Amino acid sequence: MKLGEWNILRIDRIKDVGAYLTDGHEDVLLPAKQVPADVEVGDNLEVFLYRDSEDRMIATVHTPLITIGELKHLRVKSVTDIGAFMDWGLERDLFMPFGQQTVKAETGRTYLVKLYVDKTGRLAASMKISDVLQDNDKYVKGDRVTGTIYNIKHDFGAFVAIDDKYKGLIRTSEIYQKLCIGDTVECRVSNVRPDGKTDLSMREEIPTQMLKDSEMVYDILRSYGSKAPFGDKSSSDVIRKEFGISKNAFKRALGHLLKEGRIEVGDTETSIIG
Questions:
Q1: Whole-model pTM above 0.90?
Q2: DSSP string of the chain?
Q3: Which one is predicted more confidently, 23 or 256?
């Protein structure tokens, strides 16, 4: 019998508590309220196997939101001292240990998880999904993709499950906004490496992004009046905090606005002239 999966089992006997199903070696109970009215001993039933509140293997005809081998978005119903409990469509909530969380789970939030059997033979959820994600064999440089952030390492970047299937990475140098595990992001494929790993960017190609950045920068500069306290020598940290872009992107935007005759740029301030 395969825990966490659908099994086709034969009805061995029917009692008041339900139907006992067998694979020829061991039995499992399908509770009476789930036994179809038109079945009899000897019939085969397709059931999902999990463990009940007393850790006994039990069968159900109800469809769970996740099975072994799948990645699914599940909502956290509660967080306790031992871990989180997730709604997976069955009577008993699915446990996710703290050790399987890439960020501390929050009640009400949804995370992309896998289902696995732990060392004690129980089903559990895990945010550590990189081992079941595939190398990208679908997208090429320039493609637009959607994915889910499943881990963040600040010295490396945000790890993205593209289509909840392929491995992707937004490098730290490409992140100019707050990202959280569980977020859905839309990105541009900036590079597909020979090993199948996929680099992503949340920004457009430079010519297109420069036009967008220019309008954003101009609006912020104007909000300060005729002069804004930012210029060619403003620090990268100040630029990132105020405009949410890199120093290079900021200077490209200033150059575009200067060429259009809308600003005059100094070392530490910019004047609005148009």
A1: no
A2: --TTSEEEEEEEEEETTEEEEESSS-EEEEEGGGS-TT--TT-EEEEEEEE-TTS-EEEESSPPS--TT-EEEEEEEEE-SSEEEEE-SSSSPEEEEGGG-SS---TT-EEEEEEEE-TTS-EEEES--GGGPBPP-S--TT-EEEEEEEEEETTTEEEEEETTTEEEEEEGGG--S---TT-EEEEEEEEE-TTS-EEEESS--HHHHHHHHHHHHHHHHHTT-SEES--TT--HHHHHHHHSS-HHHHHHHHHHHHHTTSEEE-SS-EEE--
A3: 23
